[in-house]
Design a protein that fits this description.
- This protein is mainly alpha-helical.
- It has six helices and two strands; from the N terminus they run αααααββα.
- It has a two-stranded antiparallel sheet with strand order 1-2.
- A hairpin with a 3-residue loop joins strand 1 and strand 2.
- It is globular, with a radius of gyration of 16 Å.
- It starts with 8 loop residues before the first helix and ends in an 11-residue tail after the last helix.
- Keywords: Metal-binding.
Length: 156
């Protein structure tokens, strides 16, 4: 993501927030019990995947803004669908707030995300979106196997 690259800084944020909206709609499609218990092939239940997304994106941005490299912890106490969605909604505007505090000139700068992933900031930002898409895809497989139509992937 260079200053003359494919996306502007604002366009990337809009793209990311579109994916977040789609993931939120995916969470809403799950029945409560299956959100926390349903699994295929040894994969984690979708609630655990959502917890991972919640403990990577915003905390990673906070680290970039505050220049901290603390580790991550996916073991968070969101044990209901309502709690997951409330945390999702709490984080959404904060992602915009923290993202906007990172000057575009810093995007090529290496940052040791969570003290483990030393890469340019733009690669870490792409990772946040890629990770979310990957886990949402797992959620789609779960929904389809439960006989539930997932949201259309283009409806962001």
């Amino acid at each position: 993501m260079s200053t003359n690259g494919f996306f502007s800084k604002a366009e990337f944020l809009n793209h990311w927030q579109g994916h977040r909206n789609l993931t939120r709609n995916t969470i809403e499609k799950f029945p409560e019990k299956e959100l926390f218990e349903f699994s295929i092939g040894g994969m984690r239940p979708f609630a655990e995947l959502v917890k991972e997304i919640l403990t990577v994106g915003l905390p990673g941005l906070e680290g970039m803004v505050n220049n901290t490299t603390e580790g991550f912890n996916h073991d968070v106490p969101f044990n209901t669908k309502e709690a997951l969605l409330a945390e999702w909604d709490r984080q959404t505007p904060l992602i915009t707030e923290y993202y906007n505090q990172i000057p575009e000139e810093r995007f090529p700068e290496h940052f040791n995300l969570f003290g483990q992933f030393n890469a340019p900031i733009y690669e870490n930002l792409l990772y946040f979106v890629d990770n979310e898409i990957h886990h949402r895809g797992q959620g789609y497989v779960y929904l389809r196997s439960l006989g539930i139509e997932p949201p259309m992937f283009w409806d962001r």
